[in-house]
Amino acid sequence: MGALDEGPLDLELENGVRLGSIDLGFEEEPETIAIEDAVRVLLHGLGEDVNREGLKKTPFRVAKALREGTKAVHEF
């Protein structure tokens, strides 16, 4: 599946946030982690603080929605 096969993103942002190593206690599936990392990068690119209380769970919520929304596609 391309980038998802490469495992989680391991990147340190300018503000010291380390992506791919943030332990938020969510699912540890590589696909979910890759999506969460991508969402964190997008949020950071928008100037958001990914560690802000209101955004901490957003990467997982997005990953969960995408995985559940495409689940039927992968079942066939």
From TrEMBL:
An individual GO BP term: tetrahydrobiopterin biosynthetic process
GTP cyclohydrolase I domain segment(s): 35-74
Gene Ontology CC terms: cytoplasm
Segments crossing the lipid bilayer: none
Gene Ontology MF, one: zinc ion binding
Family: Belongs to the GTP cyclohydrolase I family.
Protein name (database record): GTP cyclohydrolase 1
